[in-house]
Amino acid sequence: MKQAASSPVVYFENAAGTLLEEPAGYIRAIWGGGAQQYPTPAVQALFTQMMLGMQRRNWSRMLIDQTRMRPFTPEEQQWIAHEWLPRAVTEGGYRYGAVVVSPEVMVRLATAYVTTQSQELPLTYRSFDTEAAAQAWLLQQAPSPIK
Asked: Which is deepest, 11, 37, 38, 133, by most CB within 10 Å?
């Protein structure tokens, strides 16, 4: 009997977005959902769950869909760059981020600030206009962090 292909599993959802465990061995983060505005605690909770998901599964890869995301606030940018990212790399094993970019310039600028702050970390980000291109690149990267 032929076994059915596995489906992504939603493991966290809040006003800021949805997180899925993908059968191919990476976390998929979908920002925004239906809410145009969401509070900073929801942003921090989504990021925290991203790290915990990678840590739990021993995965190093994440596909981040920012097409419906609002820009990060300056405070969120600081928290992500100086608190979350270092922890996600050292404790969560985060190594590869494939970002499906937003059409909104302010979202792109806020994300660019965060990624330029991470240049000292063993982390590789690539930006893509389509999910297919992002996934193709991500699947070429190591699924688990090298320890």
From this structure: 38
63 burial class (0-12, 13-18, 19+ CB within 10 angstroms)? buried
Q: Whole-model pTM above 0.85?
A: yes
CA distances from 102 to 30, 35, 86 (A): 11, 15, 24
Q: Identify the residue whose tokens are 């909104």.
A: 104
pLDDT digits (tens, 9 = 90+) for 110-147: 888 888 877 789 999 999 999 999 999 999 998 887 65
Beta bridge pairs of residue 19? 12, 29
> How far does CA 56 lie from the centroid of its chain?
15
3-state secondary structure 75-91: HHHHHHHHHHHHHHHHC
DSSP state of 134: H
